[in-house]
Amino acid sequence: MNLLRSLSRTHLKSQIFREVDNRKQIYQSKYAGFYLLSKQLTNAANSFNKKYGCPIVLILDQIERIAKKNQDFLGILQDFAKDHADRGSIIIVFVTPQLLKSYSAWSQAIIPLEIGDISDEITVKFLEETDVNKNISKYIVSHLTGGYFALLQQFKTQYKITPNIAAEKFRKQLFMRIQNSLNEAKTIIPLDMLHKLIGANILSSQHENCTVSFHSYYVKTYFKEANKTASKI
Fold it and tell me: Which domain of life is it from (predicted)?
């Protein structure tokens, strides 16, 4: 009996030491902050479920930024989402302009809800109703943003600050993004050039009709202007 008690205590101590060691490693890792946050989210989700009888919903917007900067952390987020989806304790919604299917956690995702861009005509009206000059609205929509809502919001913010130079300033910012993306594409491990340009958000592929086009209006405008400049040289 004493031997069993001794073995039991030894086993319990080893478990405690392992748990302490694991926590020490986690706290010292670069994802320690998320580990603490995940514990708090889990506790909050459990309390919410007990009170309301349904899982809490967490919405993560612009998740593609994490995908570009830190795919390891994105994997941790998706695994966290999968674990809680299995338990039915937390529903996590990933909002992104591109589908992220490269991780096994995607198997727990429902069929994604895809929201298309709004028409150019409605987009111009949208900008006008937020006090953007009509001519500027038409230029911005036809040459830079199209109906891409995220870009429209960025332009509106810029317009509020510097309305007189907002269009030109916004155009330069977007073109700078393309130049950075092109430079980044050059450093990618050599694969098919088409795949590089799609990955750098220069081109966009439409799987339904197997076509490739420019990713957005401002990309198209950039290459039009670049082509005009090159032809004059």
Answer: Eukaryota
**Which residues lie across from 56 on neighbouring strands?**
90
Verdict on whether the full-model pTM lies above 0.70: no
- What is d(CA 64, CA 94) in angstroms, rounded to the nearest whole number? 9
Q: Which residue has the higher pLDDT, 176 or 118?
A: 176
Domain ranges, residue 213: 120-232
> Could you tell me if 221 and 173 lie in one domain?
yes
**Using an 8 Å Cβ cutoff, are 74 and 102 in contact?**
no
Q: Is the dihedral of CA 214, 220, 226, 231 positive or negative?
A: positive
Residue 52's CB is within 10 A of a number of other CB atoms, namely 9
Tell me what pLDDT residue 109 has. Answer: 55
Average pLDDT score over the chain? 75
> Does residue 163 fall inside a structural domain?
yes
Q: Do residues 161 and 104 both lie within one domain?
A: no
